[in-house]
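Ticket reopened. Same input as before:
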Amino acid sequence: MDAGERLFLEKGIAAASIDDIVRAANVAKGTFYLYFQSKDDLVAALRERYVETFQRRIADYEEAANPSDWSQRMQRFIEAVVETYLGSVELHDLLFHSADHHPERRASQSEEGIVRGLADRLKAGTEAGAWRVEDPEMTAILLYHAFHGALDHVAMTKKRKPSTKAVVATLRSFFSRVVQQT
Amino acid sequence: MDAGERLFLEKGIAAASIDDIVRAANVAKGTFYLYFQSKDDLVAALRERYVETFQRRIADYEEAANPSDWSQRMQRFIEAVVETYLGSVELHDLLFHSADHHPERRASQSEEGIVRGLADRLKAGTEAGAWRVEDPEMTAILLYHAFHGALDHVAMTKKRKPSTKAVVATLRSFFSRVVQQT
Amino acid sequence: MDAGERLFLEKGIAAASIDDIVRAANVAKGTFYLYFQSKDDLVAALRERYVETFQRRIADYEEAANPSDWSQRMQRFIEAVVETYLGSVELHDLLFHSADHHPERRASQSEEGIVRGLADRLKAGTEAGAWRVEDPEMTAILLYHAFHGALDHVAMTKKRKPSTKAVVATLRSFFSRVVQQT
Amino acid sequence: MDAGERLFLEKGIAAASIDDIVRAANVAKGTFYLYFQSKDDLVAALRERYVETFQRRIADYEEAANPSDWSQRMQRFIEAVVETYLGSVELHDLLFHSADHHPERRASQSEEGIVRGLADRLKAGTEAGAWRVEDPEMTAILLYHAFHGALDHVAMTKKRKPSTKAVVATLRSFFSRVVQQT
DNA sequence: AATGAATGAGTTTTCATTCAT
DNA sequence: TATGAATGAAAACTCATTCAT
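Engineering reply: fixed in the latest deploy. New output:
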């Protein structure tokens, strides 16, 4: 899986052959097929691993926050997302946005989970009076993609890449305006 | 090009062979290579055509608005984006987000152009006192991806798909909050 | 061996993998190679087992007949062949007629044994004045294949399959004509 | 097709790879797949070609006989079968008896055609009073397989191979006895 | 005696691209 | 300008066999 992930990142999924992967992993071709039914199966396994790792990291981060301090919780959430994404946007995009256009499968589990989590938080915060959000589901979608796109952009920036702190601040401010936080 | 576009949408770029395309177009294989250097070249041509069509449509829409009425201009802009995207997200994603992950090429021309245009408008609107945006470039990026993601989501929704009007209203409201329009 | 025989019959020799066989037999791959040198070796073992079983059954049947009553002996012989073949034509064809065409090995031991036995009987019967056969070797070959083909045909017949008795009668009558039995 | 036929005869169907075939035919691998969908498809094409050739040769032979002289017609028929089979038993067995045991497909078209033809002749001859055959269908099957097996045997005989003439005479005599020709 | 993970040579098949007509 | 037969490199996948445990 590590060899596959590395090669997929380097050359793209289509361009990395099973041959390349097993050579990099120092195993025989048959060994690959002992553990994965096909190349697609490996991609699926990598997707699963990505989602698990990602969600564990977000959870770890948020844990430390005071559950009733919504401002702090969102701060932590945004920090978690930024830190985690910046280290893995390439992989995320590779696994969830490239591949061969399977309309049905698109808008993948990974995103769904995060978006749903975000919507839940927005609703809870509204009920707690921390802010005012009329359509939490749609807002979650808009925020998710805004953040994702921005982090994609930052990750792609070669020179004068802004600091993590600056990115967090920018997203925090964007978030505040969107939820009309007082 | 039409045959290619149709088949790419149906089966994905990798899965649609030149053979399929020329058969659909009712020409011989050689004829294809008379007009395109390679399969990639066709994809590039489709990308170019997409960008042109897209930008012409946005411009057409906005033209009718009163240049000094920023509220109306943004309304028109959002309407244009929604109308145009809803009819072509699939194609857009196919051409600009799938394919073989060429990190360099990513964050494509298409997006850059629109994001730059949006940033310019945000800046001008701020200068005209229509709203207040501190970091127009970053805000443009955030807005662009928020909109794009939301439209992607809507396009993918199978049942109870919201009306264009409702989508425009949602995005308009999101926009207002983000730019702290008074 | 049983698992192999069953799977070979179900899927064909080439299509049944060692993996399938050991899984069906509930043993490990290594265990297979403890008892058989190769897949071919298993096929050879099945062939041997088939010939032994077949010839024992024929012998058992004929034993009960009066050795000097040729008419009865042939009746018993034909009964034995019909009974035995009808239960195993598929296996017989699988083991002796499919496989990878090794011209040398063809016209296999199994057939040779039976044909020789038949020729001997024809000769003995002629000497005993029971019938008149000029070229016993050739006649044995002709009879063997006639019987084998007919039984193959019957075994393959799906609906309105004739009874064993009817088949025996048909073959008996064919035999009589061929040996010009009076 | 010629290269395939030659190699299949030499090494067996399974052992002859597409690679071998295209090398022998002096064409590229792709060319093979331009004309045949798969290896099986080539085998099917060879089967078809075999049946056509075979039946044309039988028909050519019989044509010369006097239609009302049944003795002569059968003589011609047997001559045709012997001549034709002796030159192609190996190929016939390869195409129709080896392969991967497809119970349903067995007892192939080739045989069916010939057996049916033979049954028709037996019936017509009986009606014309040339001989007496009670069950023409079954007799045809028995005769077909007797002949086929005998010719197989002759073709396989390495030393002291009997002459075509001798084989024809043997089969002719066998036939006479079976149909109780007077 | 039994196991089963690992092997890798070998096979079929695909398809973008070329080029003589 | 158009054709389409021919190409062949490259890819995915299979499976009989081995051998350290």
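Chains D and A do not touch (no CB pair under 8 Å). Chain D is about 70% helix and 0% strand. Please confirm and we'll close it.
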